[in-house]
Amino acid sequence: MARRIRLGIVGAGIAGLTLARAMADCADVRIFEKSRGVGGRMATRRTDAVAFDHGAQYFTIRDGRSRAALETAQADGVIQPWTGALATLPDGNLAALSGGDTTRYVGSPSMNALAKAMAAGLDIQTDAPVEAISGTAGKWFLKIGDRREGPFDWLVLAAPAPQSALLLPDEFTHHGALAKTRMNACFTLMIRQTEDAKLPFAAARVDDPVIGWISRNNSKPERPDDPCLVVNATAKWSDDHLEEPLEDVRRTMLEALQRYIPISPSEAEAATIHRWRYANVDRPAGQAFLLDDVSQLAACGDWCIAGRVEAAFLSAAALGDALKQIVKVAP
Predict the structure, then answer these.
(1) Cβ atoms within 10 Å, residue 111
(2) Which residues are paired to 123 by β-bridges?
């Protein structure tokens, strides 16, 4: 029987957590996450009594494998359908937000609830930004601040493609695929409303040069009742203004929002902004994962397939299948 491999994973988003769970029966797995919590863009920010899902707004389940994997989470109420009306602005047309083949799911009671459930029992170090990778195949080390973690037989980058490209050593043979991948930024505006505007929709797609999405976050299941809005800028506008001061971005997004929804001066003053450098996938790698069995390095994530939460799961699940086959024949 092959010995258990030592597997290091960089990134505790859906891809990293999926891979860790898939490999737990044949590897000693440790995950390193730069943020304070797990979930990546499955993120929730709490301010006083308000919760903002300021990353991924929802996810769909189209593939049978992901549906099967999420059966327990759905039965436990960790994920729930998000129902209500979806508007198209500025024309105001309404359609069902959830129903038929386009059911939209959210974590409950927060978007990161699914990631927290997946993280249970895993060895995860948070607040652990990886600065460099050193070593050789079968003996990889991670530099995190003034300490070195390892050695690891295998290292997997489950981070956005540009970050993975910077960290992966030259020995990794798939740098070309990483360079081909293109990801978009996204600015998220979060507004606590002083009173419910009683908007006729739960969320809206917006045909606007600045903003592309408005969500009444309190319309999601198990959220606090206090009314609040989450507003996303378009990918193009976000890319074009990525390095601008956040206060300038905040002001411009507020001006755009008020073309569709009235915002009081006090609401505008208290609004906060978040910048995601790598939020959407414009051009995927075109393969389910990147694996180099000579260097014993790999990478996975939604950017391999498409900009969807489910794509992150499928990428990592497929990589787990491939790694298990290699481990079975390892000495």
Answers:
(1) 29
(2) none
